[in-house]
Amino acid sequence: MRKTKNRKEWRAVIIDACKTILDTKKSRRRRRRRRRRRRRRRRRRRRRRRRRRRRRKRSAVLTNYAVLQCIVLYSLVLYIILFCSVSHCLTFALLLGSSQAHEHYQLRIPNGENVTHPCKGGNSTWPGVGHENSSGGGKRNAFGVDFAKFGHTWNEDLCRADSDGDGWTNGYELGDPDCAWSPGRTPSRSDNITHPGVCDNDATCEAMESFADCSSRKFYCPRTEEAGVRHLNLTFKEITIPPSETNYFCMTFDLPDDQDYHVIGDEPIIDNADVLHHIIIYGCEPGLDNAIPVPIPCSMDSVVYRCNHIIGLWGFGHPGTCYRNDTGFRVGRSSFKRVLLEATIIILFYFHSSSSSSSSSSSSSSSSSSSSSSSSTSSPSSSSPSSSSTSSPSSSSSPSSSSSSSSSSSSSSSSSSSSSSSTSS
Asked: Which positions fall inside the Temptin Cys/Cys disulfide domain (predicted)?
């Protein structure tokens, strides 16, 4: 006979089954918790790996940037050592570091355009009256310092002062001994005008003025006179300057491509120095249809025209650049066949205040309007930056560029073309 379980036994069986079920649930929960912990650990490890990768990537970028900076700096230094002549480097420094010189300041002092050069005499003048450089630009001389101190105006204090310490007042040296001159009037004397910022009659003060160099500032480059050197003029056509303070104009010129040449010198040819500040010549990449046959506003965007290789520079007061015998920029068949000439033109505006009587007020307002009309059309400024470049045929013939300026004296807005010529010797 089969023995049946009593109630106590059944209760024990049921309790064991419940314990088994509960143990199974606990084990499942434990497994789930373990899985969750493993997942969290994996996520943390992935995050740490991602952070490490990002740090390594940033470190690599910074390292590459530092290496690139070193390469660029080293290349620039190497380029200057191997290819940049001393005169060209000085031109670059002059372009970046020189202060602006404005010939309109000549109109604010008596006989400002007739100041005789103390070294040369005769018809040689010193256009940059307030600067140590006779052509203007750069450091001011003693008169230039006083002129700036008195607000760039001719008044009795400036007239009675003796800026250069030679015993003569500024008014006496400039032909206004009575200090009665004002802009627009004729000075009492227009001959024997001496320089108010250069001591030229007293040995005591002459010894302190080493800047009054009597050597010529004209362009001198013996290589340009050698046989086989080719000269090329790059000349801007006449343009009308808009009524804004600073304007950039660009125009391209095609170079001879029958063979390779080397630019060995450049000389500025300036027809109006009142507004021209500096000129940059860029070499254009070959194979691009980027010709600019007439001067157009360019806002220093030479890169837009794919012309971003500087091969020539000119700054105010610099006579030109003559490269060393072993130096030159290659142009022609296998290099630059086109160059872009960029000229920077600076215009200053004058405003007349009409605060007198009614009659003088009307006359001053008319002069103000004519002045504003002439500066708004600003001049059909004939800016013909022409560049004379020299090159010798056996890989040293060069078109070099020089500059011309745009004039802002006429009130008409028509523009005409100026001629450019090239000759070979």
From this structure: 100-198
